[in-house]
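Contributing: when you submit paired examples, paste them exactly as shown. First protein:
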Amino acid sequence: TNSTACAKLPNDMNDCHFKFTKSLRRVLLGALLICPMLVAAQTQSVRFGLPTFSAYENGTNAIIVVTRTGGTEGVVTVNYNTVDGSALDVQDFIGAAGTITFGSNEVVKTFAIPMVDNILQEPDEFFTVLLSNPVGAILGDQSTAQVVIFDDDTDIIFSRSTYGVDEWATNAVI
């Protein structure tokens, strides 16, 4: 830093003004060199790639996509965890919790949540996945996602135990 205190006579004021102006120019030039980088830097954020993911009950996993936006420099981490909905941990899926780490230049990460193939006939069910505690970024606009599990168990019930059809007929009505 360059500072000058002026307590001079009026005929020396021009010299004092010159020194102050020269110092101020240095400060402003330094600010102009630094500020464009600060203005150009965007806040990084993490979010789910979709608001809803899905998997079939007899599938092995629901694949969850998390994205990073606003830049790719540095390491970013974010925690995730599952929360029961109409689908229940252990009965319909295996609950998960962990930390996702984005390295420099990484913008997409995935993780898998295992499905449980039960034999219950039930409607499609859902559970929730949450993002929390980001480091090096903020939570984006989609920090909560639902996972829909499509049921694969159906019961087919016939109205009678036996059906007959004439040999010459082309179809049987069941």
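Second protein:
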Amino acid sequence: KLTMPGIRILALAVTLLSLLSIRLVGVVSAAEPAAVTLVPADEKELAALIAKNKGKVVFVDYWATFCGPCKKAFPHTIELHKKHVAEGLVVVSVNFDLLEDQEKALTFLKKQGATFDNLISRYDGGGSDANDAFGIGPLPHLRLYDRKGKLRYKWEGKAEDLDAKVKELLTEKG
């Protein structure tokens, strides 16, 4: 048989549990990963994004889902982002798939957890127009900009010294 003090204690316990569950829901939703997006862009929009991040080191990974070496190396791009974002590294990926394959590229990015800026070339694929506009050679192509927004390093294919160059630019004063 419940007494009046027992009912009050029970009501207080229910209220506390309700408040606790609201608090926990807020914690869980705040810890959800950032959304992965893929936005059509051209070389001018990429340049504006690099300029917007002056004061930070910017790493740009030019890639495509049809490029085997690009997909193989992409987990390293994710690793660089996670490892150095707190030190001031900004990662941007520029995809060169056909615009009609944007969903395929976005699915790849989501599986990789690419929560940084992801662009897809407005030039509809990785042909010579796109490569000329972005000023790059064959994929994969990587670029590293210093804290002043100046292009300091670029690689076609595998970048053996990429980690060392990222660390070098992160230690420089902007």
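If you have annotations for the second protein, write them as plain sentences, like these:
Strands lie at 39-41, 57-63, 89-95, 117-121, 141-145, 151-156.
Residues 20-32 have pLDDT under 50 and may be disordered.
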